[in-house]
Amino acid sequence: MDMSKYKAMFLSEAREHLQKMANLLVEVEAEPQNRNGIDALFREAHSIKGMAASMSYQQTAALAHHLEDSLDLFRQQGEITAEAIDHLLAGVDLIALLLEDIDGGREERSVANFCDGQLTPEEDSTEISQEVIQPSAEAERQIRLQLHAEVPSSAARLLVISKELAGFGRVLRSEPSEEQILRGGNERRLVVVIQTHLDDTEIKSRLANYSEISRVEIGSPQAKAAVASVPGGATVRVDTDLLDRFIGLTGELITNRYMLQSAAGEKNWDALREGLASLGRLVKDLHHQVLKVRMMPIDSVTARLPRLVRDLARRSKKDIRFELEGNRIELDRAILEELADPLTHMIRNAIDHGIDERGTITVRAWRQRDQVMLQVADDGRGMDPAVLRQRAVEKGLISPAQAEVMRDYDVLQLVCLPGFSTASQLTDTSGRGVGMDVVKAAVEKLGGVLHIDAAPGRGTRFTLKLPLSVAIIKVLLLNVDNKQVALPITRVLQTIEIERSQIQTSGKQRVFSFHEELLPLISLRKILNLPIPRAVERVAVVVTEVLGRKIGVVVDYFAGQREVFVQGLPSPIDRLRGLSGGTILGDGRVVFILDIQGLLERKR
Amino acid sequence: MAQRVLIVDDALFMRNLLRDLFSAAGWDVVGTAADGNEALLKYRDLRPNLVTMDIVMPERSGLEALQDILAIDPDAVVIMCSALGQESMVLEAIQNGAKDFIVKPFQKEQVLEVVNRVLG
Lengths: 604, 120
Fold this sequence. Notes:
The complex is a heterodimer of chains A (604) and B (120).
Chain A: H1 7-30, H2 35-54, H3 58-77, H4 82-103, H5 112-117, H6 121-129, E1 139-147, H7 154-166, E2 169-175, H8 178-182, E3 189-196, H9 200-207, E4 213-219, H10 240-265, H11 269-293, E5 295-297, H12 299-302, H13 305-315, E6 319-325, E7 330-332, H14 333-354, E8 358-368, E9 371-378, H15 385-394, H16 400-405, H17 408-413, H18 432-445, E10 449-454, E11 460-467, E12 471-480, E13 483-488, E14 492-499, E15 503-506, E16 509-514, E17 517-523, H19 524-527, E18 538-546, E19 549-555, E20 557-566, E21 579-584, E22 590-594, H20 596-603
Parallel strand pairs in A: 6-8, 13-22, 17-19
Antiparallel strand pairs in A: 1-3, 1-4, 2-3, 5-7, 8-9, 9-11, 10-11, 12-13, 12-20, 14-18, 15-16, 16-17, 18-19, 21-22
Helix pairs in contact in A: 1-2, 1-4, 2-3, 3-4, 10-11, 13-14, 14-18
Chain B: E1 4-8, H1 12-24, E2 28-33, H2 36-46, E3 50-54, H3 62-72, E4 78-82, H4 87-95, E5 100-103, H5 108-119
Parallel strand pairs in B: 1-2, 1-3, 3-4, 4-5
Helix pairs in contact in B: 2-3
């Protein structure tokens, strides 16, 4: 029987079981006599073993069997030891590597050493991959590496490393490719095949300078499947009801098309209008349903947190309990992806600065009308508004008079100002405030709001209020009078620069020739009532369409294209005609999205 | 001889923080600049071994200043200082020739690891 078609399903399920195992291990570590936890661990290992064996993945099955055996022992003893937890977690990590091997179509690495010698996977993999090669001869080497889960800006880090690797020799293949890395995202793995004269030890020692790398493996490249496939993040599971709905909508669109076709053929304007109206409804419905596909449960980002907290707590030698609530709440994929870094950041803050020796961190999510609330709370030392007031005045962020009248709540929000820190020593580590400005910026970019709530000795709560879904569009940024505004790319027919001499006058209207058509030329400065500067030699023009007519809009210059999260404007700004929304750029600037048609109508 | 560094950031707080950090590690902070224009002038006059460059600054941004500096000295070692959510700009900077980057909030060890690595 051909099992290959089950591979993807096996991988996705096995990864879910592994994630559960990792979280259970962290739970059981806090409570070594947790019978139910140990039983559940045993069952997870057992499931992985069964699945792997039926797929004939021998090494994975052997390792799962090994873990199952040790867990069975602890099940009988009714307790699990601390060293055993480390070993079991190492085993979980090693299974994750085996799954990657399977995913990449390679032979599974051997697990014999791990099962016999209680080695950690790092030591294990070094041993396997270090084959002897001639030092000076050029050889093709495949380098696989992975970044730590908490490394920020992972794409940029991968780019730096990939440039470093390019310095080792000639890059033959790279996955993700440099272009893929440049698009950003949360990729943490890199597989590169290079032709190099460096030996493996030399490559390893050069990469050892990057503490961001959690794991490096070097080996001979295998034929075609050498480069790993894109990890599971790019696929989604979709409810079959939703798929049925899509099929239904497609059917309605086809019917609609025939209706429009015959109406146009008969020049039956009433029927055409009716057809267009129903097309409008269908498209709106389709858009709505597509957005639903983008929704994912929040545990796609929170599931890794128990392990993160455990590792960070261990490193800082603190005793920290971690609770997760509401992890089935759904949010748009794009929002979830952006939340990973801020969440890590707030948790690290809580461990570094909130909690002294022991305490609890709670991450909870819940729905509140059409918004999702996400809260990171600790029961640590909290923050004292009186201290913050004093510090804000010292730093010149507010005046003493302002400090007097500010409410405690507003004072707490000051920690989000860049450069505000509550840590007593500025140089030793992050300091609570230094990073909160970037968390706040990340949340606002998504159209969310960040609230901070704290009292001395009673812990700190960071609450993120997030929209359920986002509209991401590509815009053209335009500069007028040193202000930036944006125009959706879909509204831009072309951008051109024309010489002053190409501009003609027709009556009172200035026009220019565009593909043998005379288009009216309208100055964005004039529409927006901005000062008109002296004439320049060349003018930047956006060709767009208003009410079916092409026009040229003169701007100062084009400032590039961006993908942005569009946010609706709050009242009363939403009543202004000519603005269809707003967005916040990466650097915190607010940019309005123009509706040229609305602007011109306002002008009339 | 101690390594010579130029710190570019529009926030006085960050300049001081980095200055203290480098001084404590035995480096010579030869200058600081508060915007991209000043950065280029200082670089031309001081020729430091290393520049730490904030990305978002008034007047000329860090991305622009990076290109200005590389135009007068293609071997310049420039490290970008970014915040969460500025990844696309960091990617652009590295593509344009920045050697590495650090992410605010800084951990002292991380900053030193990065600078020692690029000066290798």
